[in-house]
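Pasting as-is:
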Amino acid sequence: MTFLAPRQGLFAAIILISLCLHTLFFVVSEERKIKEEQRAVAEKSVALLAQELKVPLATNDRISMSVVADKYVKESQVSFVGIYDAKDQLLVPVGSDNDSGVVLRESVVSGSDALGSVVVKAADVSRAEIISKHWLFLLGALGLHAMLWLLYGYLARPTQELKEAIAKKVRMDLLDKGILYQAPQHNEDSEPASSQNPIKSFLEKAKTEQKPDQSTQAATQSAEASLHDQDYIVQMLFEDPNQLLATVSHDNKAAYFALCDQLLDKAIVHLLELPLLTGVDASVIKYYDDKGAKVALRGVSPAKTATAAVFLSKLMLMLNQVVYDKHREIKRFTWQIRTTVSDAHRADSVVDLAKKRREAPLILIDDKAQDEIKICAELVRLENPMSIQERESRALASVTKATAERLRSVRDKVLLED
């Protein structure tokens, strides 16, 4: 898996700010340079005009004045030349007087007589024109900054050794906090890779194990026939709205179903070990096939049984998410599931309801059992119910912190067990 460099987005922001500052400083420096050049040209032009306009001003020859002034206005740095008489009245305006550039004024003197004055105004400095003239430089600066960002993203990525060290540290922290549990290590010398990555080892090992034999399937059919109305049914249904599961090869499905069956068996065993669920029994009615799996729970206390059913449905979703993510990472066949919880006599109804509603887990049990479950979980009504079953059904919105910790502990035991 390829990791990005740390804080690459922040570095991109810094690169962008640097590019903007480079552009700003370049434009400001060019603007200052152009203004200095324009001032020098204006000073030279106004001095020359003062000499050349002595005769035309003395004779009040406006045509000659216009010809002389027009020669200087044609220069790109000069936008306006104004010739005034001794009373400071404008005689000849040449060019545009709208610019706000540098303005220089020089008196025209012949001997001791003041004949008038001449005004030279420099052209405005356009920043847009500066950018358009130097677009190649600015494009090069943009390319250089982009190369710096890409180079940082490549050089600052964590190395394999660093990633392994981080993974080891995170695992040790989780073990110290009790979130993960250390798997037993029977043969540390011959299986070092398995001890380093127990979850992946478990998933790989489960691929080689087969489906339950004929005697197990017969026992499953017997368990389905012996259901009671007091039982609670947990069903795992594959998320397959387009019927794509039927296109998968038998060998791939068989190996994947074997993995799911192992997870289901171990989840039931470890979940019912919780002191909170003492007295609850569970039996697998149907192991995984194209339509999913089915488990029946029964016990002396209906409240505990209903709680165990909801816990199991949530636990199977958590386990499925781990398997789904891991298989996607190693590019192997996987499928997501949804779960339902119901009374035994409404098991078929909740399956039909699950085809129309996307909530998971979807819960269809009596009100008394719902009240007991609310102690450790929050149940919410379905939005826009269209039938009696939808009005009576609930969705699991959240669980308490203690319940979440219990389920995470059971999940880790299932995944880390040999």
